[in-house]
Structure formats: C-alpha cells, structure tokens
Design goal:
- The structure holds two protein chains of two kinds.
- Chain A is mainly α.
- Helices cover about 75% and strands about 0% of the residues of chain A.
- A two-stranded antiparallel sheet of chain A has the order 1-4. Chain A has a two-stranded antiparallel ribbon with strand order 2-3.
- A two-stranded antiparallel sheet of chain B has the order 1-2.
- In chain B, a hairpin with a 2-residue loop joins strand 1 and strand 2.
- In chain B, helix 5 runs antiparallel to helix 8, helix 6 packs across helix 8 and helix 10 packs parallel to helix 12.
- Classes of the chains: A mainly alpha, B mainly alpha.
- Chains A and B meet through helix 6, helix 10, helix 12 and helix 15 of A and helix 4, helix 10 and helix 12 of B.
Chain lengths: ~350, ~290
Amino acid sequence: MRTGHYKESLGQLVALTDSPTVKAWSIGLVVVLLAAPFAIGNYGLTLMVSALIAVIGAVGLNMLTGTTGLISLGQAGFLAVGAYTNAILLADFGWPVWLSLPAAGIAAAIVSIIVGIPSLRLKGLYLAITTLAFAFIINHIILYAEWLTHGPNGVFVTGATLFDIDLQKGKPLYYLTLGITILTILAALNISRTRIGRAWMAIRDHDIAARVMGIDLVRYKLLAFMCSSFIVGIAGALISLQIRFVNIDVFALILSIEALAIIILGGLGSIAGAVLGAVFLSFLPEAIRLFFTAFVDPNSTFYTSYVFEIRGVVYGVVIVVFLRFVPDGLIGLWRNVRKYWSNWPLAY
Amino acid sequence: MDFFLLLISTGLVSGAAYGLIAMGFALIYKATGVVNFAHGELVMLTAYISFSLASAFDLSFFPLMALTIPISMAIGLALERIFIRPMLGEPIFAIVMVTVGLAVILRGVTIMIWGPDPFNATAGLPTGVIEIGSIPFYPAQLYMIGALAVMTLLAWLFLRFSRLGIAMRAVAANETAALLVGISVSRIHAFAWMFSSAIASVAGVLFAANFKLAPDLWFQGLKSFPAVILGGMDSVIGAALAGLIIGVVENLFQGYVGQGLREISGFIVIIIVLMVRPYGLFGSREIERV
C-alpha cells in the first residue's frame, strides 16, 4: 500500500506519472496497439481506426466541455470543417497530406474563433444553443458553396500519399491514426498541467472567481475553443481519409450528441475517461450487431431498416443511465475499483 | 405587393408553429430552469399518436384534440417521472443532457413504431381554400394561427390568475423561497411538463396537418430555438410573439435575399440576439458582469 507521495525534485513534480505500474501498462498498451494490425483482419482494423478517431475527437471535446465547462453541441460542425478542408485540399488543390492534415486543424480553429466570440458573453445553455446554431449554419454553407465544396455532390478524397504509401488503406491509415492519437493524448495531458489548463479548470469551477484571480476569461475561453477545435478538425480530416468520400450527411446532429455521450460516459473532465468512453461507444454498434446475431436474426427487416434508430436509442439510454447512476463515468468506476483494491481491507 | 403579403401570411403560419413549440420550451424553462432538448421529439410523438387516433376512429379536429391532449399530458407526466424527477438536485448540465438522451430515445422509438415513410395527416380539418382579402388560406393554416392565439391567451390567464400559475412563477423566481412558503416544487415541475406536452401536441397535430407527418418533424423543435431565444427563454408569451417574428423573417429572407436562406436565417437571428441582447425581447435580465 502506498502511504504517500514524496517528491524531492522538480523533475518528479512535473513528471506525467510517478507510478511504475502506470508506465509499464502504458508501454504495454502501446506495444499491443502497434502489433494489433498483424493479429486482426481488415474489418477489425477499420473498427480500430474508427475507435482511435473517436478518441481524438473525444479528447478534443473534453478540453472544451470537460475541462473548461463550455458545452458544445456543434462538434459535427467542426468535424465537417476539418473533413472538408482536408478533402478539398487533397483532391482539388493537390496539397500533400502532411500539409493538409494540419491545415484542417487550423481551419477548424479559425472557424472556432468566430463561434467563440459570441460565447464570450454566454454560458451554459445559451452557449450550447449557439454552437448548435453554428453547426447548422456550417452545414448550410457547405451545402450551398458549390464552387468550393461541390455542394450536395460531396468530395472524393484521393491523393493522400506519403513516400509512395497510400495513407487511406489498412495499416498505413491505422499507424497514422495511432500516431496522431498518442500525440493528442500527450498534448492534452501536458496542456492540462500548465497555466492554461489550470486556468480552464478555474473557469469551469467558477468563472467569476477565476476572473478575480486574474485569469483573462476572453483569452482563455477563446484558447479553449481553438485548441479543442484544432484537435476535432484533425479528427474530421482523419474521418475523411477513412471514409474516402465526404458528404454533408456524414456530419449530422447525431454526431455532436454522440460526442457528448462519449465524454459523459467516460467521465467529464478526464482525458483517460474520454479515451475509455470513445473506445466503449465505438464498439457499441458492433456489440449491438453481435447481440442481434446471437439472439435475433441479424437479417430481420427490423434490424436492417432501423439500424440507425436502434443505435440512437442505445446512445440515448447510455447517456440517461450514466447521468443517473454513474455521474462520474467509467473513469469514476475505475477509480473506485482501484481505491478499493489498494486500500483493502480498510474502508478508506 | 401580393408577393409580399403572401410571404407575410405564410410566414405568420409557420411562425405560429414556431411560437407554439417555443411556448412549450419556455414553459419548462420557466418552471424548471431546464432547456428541454426533447421537446421537438415530444411534438413529433404526439403528432404521430394523434394521427393513429384519427385514422382509427375517424374523428374531426376538436374531438381529436380532446383525445390527444390528455394522452400527451400523460406522456409528459410519465417522462418527467421516469427521466427528470430522479435527477432533481443534480447540476442543470446533467439534467439538460438527460433531455438530449431522451430526445434520441424518443426519436428512435417513434420511427421504429411508425416507420420512416411520411404520412398525409389532415387531423380532421376541411381542406377547401378560404380567401381573406386576396390571400388564399387553407383552414389548417388559420387553425394554426388561431391555436397560437388561444394558447397564448390561456397561458397568460393561467400564469396571471390561477393559483397553480402563480405558484409556477414563484418557483421560477426562486425555487428555495417557493419551497419555504409551502409550494411543492416537484409537483410544479410535473405540471410544467404536462402543460408543455399539451402545447406540443397542439403544435404537432397542426404542423402535420399543414405540411406532412414525417420522421423529420422533430427538427421543428430545434428550428424553434430562435423563437425561444428571441422571446427570452423564460417568457412564455414572448416565445409566442417571437415565433411569429421568426416565421415572417424567415420568409422574407427566403423571398428577397436568397434561396435556401430560410433554413438558417433563424439561426443567424439567434446569434445576433445572443450577442446584442442575450435575455431576449421579454426575458428577465440576469445581471452578472464578468
């Protein structure tokens, strides 16, 4: 049993973790993820890529909603901006993929400033509604700016090659996504320990108190919007690489709700929670499919015609049940288990 | 000129729909402080239920409403009991997220029951064209405007004079103080949900009669947000009036500015209103400078 934390140097204080167990498990996980493509088939790989993209998006949203406490229902809009920027730059302008990916993030960040400015006067529900309105406006602009976005025809994403490797296929896409995921998580973990991250948390907990303590609300709220949208924009770009064909229907409102479901499920404000939630929800549709295969006929007309509705209902139930019974999310459950384990047989 | 009048008149009709839906939002927000993201789904669900009732019993409009409204109130009560009541005392964010979850559940269930194909619902209304001045109206359109007027009047009378309405305003003003003077806050919340669902059913039935009954009806809920914001989130009467304004503005945008702008002009209005006057036209002003 650990009795306390003894930190004697700056290096120990700023280290991401002081626990050898956590380090060992993290390294083990990365090794497993690196080896995974050789063990699972193409279908499994596609699922893994989707899950990793969801992780990136969730970590991005968590920065805004979990850490800073600004509720956004406009994630679909930022994802769309990222995906379209990437797709158009690759397909129509012939940019190399190592430029178009960051450009997608930057485009989303720039758009987020426009959304962020009204948010400077707004909090909570008003902000949620503004971001929702913004997502509709973005979708509308994409649909009607045909000279740039091909309007309702969508964009075929081609030309994502790096050193003659097609980044849109199986293993290369997987490794690209994995790399970006690890970078995102590390970046998010590090930001949350800096002045910026602490300022965000202060704003979430009490904005007036934060202002009194000298935190520039305007600056830090906008910064939260930008950092979060940058990450979400890159997630959108990766989606466009994976699905190869970007169309406005991909970025429906349900995507924003799914994103919120992920971070609520994982545990608001926790990066590990966002990761857990994203993995869990990404495999949920698969679980539903397996359930239907095991207990009901998967080719029944009910399943095939209402697959999206079933998924929606399950998301809804997950959101409601977690908010009601597990408000701290999966990460809260995990913390309780860990506490119980390390303190046993003492109560606390 | 005729074109202008036509835009105004059809704008008033769709505005009346926004107004009715927005009233439901505002009522729940006023009494419970929660933005009910499931309201659009409630509108859709009650519209489908009334459609089934109408086709089963072949009713005309008023008997149909007399049947639909109590059922919707029961649904509102049940939803409040099952989903919202257990969350009492939790942060507002959590409760609002529950309504978001509730919204996707209701949407999915409704589509699973009635299928994805649109229906033609007349709600037992006559379909002949009535001309007022030189502008043609369908009866359903006039009923919509009439329903808004009646509902606004009822809401005003209720909130102004009835014991329950005054209690509701007390809860809206200060929940703790209301509890202290002996108002059962949870009962007020339940009533707010019931009345809101009743208004939702009126809006849903008439909207379906005016346009069509399709699974994208829930979207009207989101499209009514501009009206809610413009009216001020906690003003029921303001929501009704703002609905009309938004409806007309949308139509004028569509007619004079550009095709397709109809869909988003309301949302542009939201953003402008929120930046200039976040408490809306009639909402109560919360003073908190940061």
